[in-house]
Amino acid sequence: MKILVCISKTPDTTAKIAFTDNNRKFAADGVQWIINPYDEWYALVRAIEFKEKDPATVLHLVTVGAADAEPIIRKALALGGDEAIRINTDSHDAYTIASQIAAVAKEGGYDLVLTGKETIDFNGASIGGMVAELLELPYLSLATKVDIEGGAVRVIREIEGGEETDSTSLPVVISCQKGVAEQRIPNMKGIMGARSKPLKVVEPVAVDSLTSIEKFELPPAKAGVKLVPADQPEELVRLLHEEAKVF
Amino acid sequence: MVLIFIDQSERKIKKTSFEAITYGVKLAAQLNTTAAGLVLGQTDDDLSSLGKYGLTKIQQVDDAALNDMDAQVYTTVIAEAFRNAGADTLVMSANLTGKAIAPRLSVRLKAGLVTGAVSLPDTGNGFVVKKAVFSGKAFAHVAVQTPQRIVTVSPNAIRAESGSGEAQVEKITVAVPAAKVKVESRDVLKGEVSLADAEIVVSGGRGLKGPENWGMIEELAKLLHGATACSRPVADAHWRPHHEHVGQTGGAIAPNLYIAVGISGAIQHLAGVNRSKTIVVINKDPEAPFFKAADYGIVGDAFEVMPKIIEAVKKLKQ
Ligand SMILES: Cc1cc2nc3c(=O)[nH]c(=O)nc-3n(C[C@H](O)[C@H](O)[C@H](O)COP(=O)(O)OP(=O)(O)OC[C@H]3O[C@@H](n4cnc5c(N)ncnc54)[C@H](O)[C@@H]3O)c2cc1C
C-alpha cells in the first residue's frame, strides 16, 4: 500500500493571535509553529501503524508551503514516514492547496490519502474533500476509526447526530480525528533518522485561486464577568433568565 | 439565484437547515434575486411547511437511493440541480454533512467556497464572507473571486426566523449514480439534542472528580433542553464519550449559553467555546482563567452550587 499523509504547519495552540499590515497578515513574529494536531496525532500515527504492520507499505508526507515549513515536515518525519514532499507555494486558498496535493497524489499513484479533520488556523475542513473530488475518489470525512485489510476499507465516521460504519475499497481519501490513533512522542532515533530522510521540493502546478482573505478581525473584548455569591445560586438563574434571557 | 441545500437526518429536517434557509432567503433578498430549497431523498416532514422560513419554492429529488448521504453521489446530484436551476450561489449548513460535500461541490462547480459563515456576506463590492478562524480566536473576511459561490453557515450563528407561508414543492428527477461507499450501519442519537445544534450546553471538567458525578450535569442540561459537553482530559480518561470533547482539538460550538463546571478554561478549551453568546463559569478557584472569558460566574464548590442551581431552574420552569 502506498500512503500519502497531508501535513500542515499551524501556530502553537497557545500562540497569541494578532495581525499586522492593516489586519491583512497574521503576526508571525515570535510564534511557535507545530504540526497541525489532527494531522500529527491521528492521520500520521495511523499511517505509521499501517507501515509497522506491513513494512512493505510506502509512506510519504506532503506539505504545501514555503521553505519555512521544512522544520515542521522534519518533525513529522521524526515520527515516521519514508520521505517528504514540499510543494513550494505559500497559498492560503483551499482550492489551490488541494490542487497541489492532488497533482502530487496523482503522479505518485497513492492508494490512501490521509488528512486531519481540519487545520487549527484556517478551520476550513476542506482539503480532504477537494483532493478527493479532484482525484474522483470517495472521501470518508471525520473518521474516528480506520481499518484497511487487503484493499478493503472500513471506517467509522462522525455524521450529523451520530456515527456511521462505512466500507469501500482503495483508493480513497480519509480525514482523521480523535479515535483514529493515539498521539506519539518522537524518540531520539526518530529525530536523528529524520535528518537523512529525503525531502523533495516540487514546484506548484499553475492554478487560479477561488478565494482570498481580505482582512482579519479580533473578536470584541468581553465586558467582564459578573460574579454571583456562592450561597445565592438562584440569583444566577434569575440573571440568566431576566438579564441574559437565555432561557 | 440562491439554491439552499436542505439537509436531513433520518428523514427529518433539522435546525441547522432552518438556519441555512433563513440565511439563503435573506441573501437572495440582499442580491435582489430568488431563492429555492433543494431536498434529497425521501422525507417524513411536510416540505411545504418550510415556507414559514420565507421559502416559496422547494425542489425534491424523491429517490430512495438518496436516503443515505454519500458525498460523491450527493455532489453529482446537487451540482446537476444547481446547474439546471441556473443558480449562482449555493447555501448549506456547515454541519457534518456540509463538511463532507461542500468541498467536493466547490471543485465540481469551480465555485469559491467559504465554510462556516457567521454572518451574511458583504455584497457591496464583491462577495465577502466573515468566518471564524484560529479556532474562534479571530475572524477572517474571505472574498469569493468566482461568479459561482458556495457558503456554508456555521451552526447557531444565524437564528432561524419563521413566520407564515407555504412553499411550493416540485419533484425533480436527476440521474443518481451508484455509490462507491457502502453504509454498513448507522447509529444516530434519537430524541437527544445534538451538541452542535444545542442552544444551551452544560459542560464538565476534571473538577468533577469522576464520571459518577455527571448526574448533575446531565440533569441541568435536560432541564434546559440542552446538551452535555466536556473538557479534553475528561474525554481522554473515558469519563465521557469522545464526541462531547470541545476545544481546539475537539468540537467547536457556539451555543447561546455555555455553562462550564469545574473547567479551568485553558486556552485550548476556550478555542472551542469562545463563540458562545453567554458563558457561565462555576469553579472553586477564583484565579481560574475561565473567569476572564465569562459573562457570569460563581466562585464556589460545584458539588454545593449545582444542586441549588438545578432547584432554582426547576422552580422557574414550574
Ligand atoms: C495541543 C493541545 C490541545 C488541546 N486541546 C484541548 C481541547 O480541545 N479541549 C480541552 O478542553 N483541552 C485541550 N487541551 C488541554 C488543556 O490545555 C487543559 O489541560 C484542559 O482543558 C484542562 O481540562 P480541565 O479544565 O477539565 O481540567 P483542569 O485544568 O484540571 O481544571 C479543573 C478545574 O476544576 C476546578 N475545580 C476543582 N474542583 C472543583 C469543585 N469541587 N468545584 C468547582 N470547581 C472545581 C479547578 O479549580 C480547576 O480550575 C489541549 C492541550 C494541548 C497542549
UniProtKB/TrEMBL annotation, chain A:
Superkingdom of origin: Bacteria
Family, as annotated: Belongs to the ETF beta-subunit/FixA family.
Gene3D superfamilies xref list: HUPs (3.40.50.620)
Protein name (database record): Electron transfer flavoprotein subunit beta
Keywords: Electron transport, Transport
Listed CDD domains: ETF_beta
Signal found in the keyword field: no
Record organism: Flavihumibacter petaseus NBRC 106054
Domain Electron transfer flavoprotein alpha/beta-subunit N-terminal as annotated: residue spans: 23-211
Record-linked InterPro entries: ETF_a/b_N, ETF_b, ETF_beta_N, Rossmann-like_a/b/a_fold
PANTHER family for this protein: ELECTRON TRANSFER FLAVOPROTEIN BETA-SUBUNIT, ELECTRON TRANSFER FLAVOPROTEIN SUBUNIT BETA
UniProtKB/TrEMBL annotation, chain B:
SUPFAM superfamilies cross-referenced by the UniProt entry: Adenine nucleotide alpha hydrolases-like, DHS-like NAD/FAD-binding domain
Domain of life: Bacteria
GO MF, one example: electron transfer activity
UniProt entry keywords in alphabetical sequence: Electron transport, FAD, Flavoprotein, Transport
Keyword Transport applies: yes
Binding sites annotated in the UniProt record for FAD: R206, S231, R232, G262, I263, S264, G265, A266, I267, Q268, H269, N283
Cofactor annotation comment: Binds 1 FAD per dimer.
Electron transfer flavoprotein alpha/beta-subunit N-terminal domain location: 2-193
GO biological process: fatty acid beta-oxidation using acyl-CoA dehydrogenase
One family name in Pfam for this protein: ETF
Cofactor(s) it depends on: FAD
Parts of the chain that traverse the membrane: none
Entry's family note: Belongs to the ETF alpha-subunit/FixB family.
Protein name (record): Electron transfer flavoprotein alpha subunit
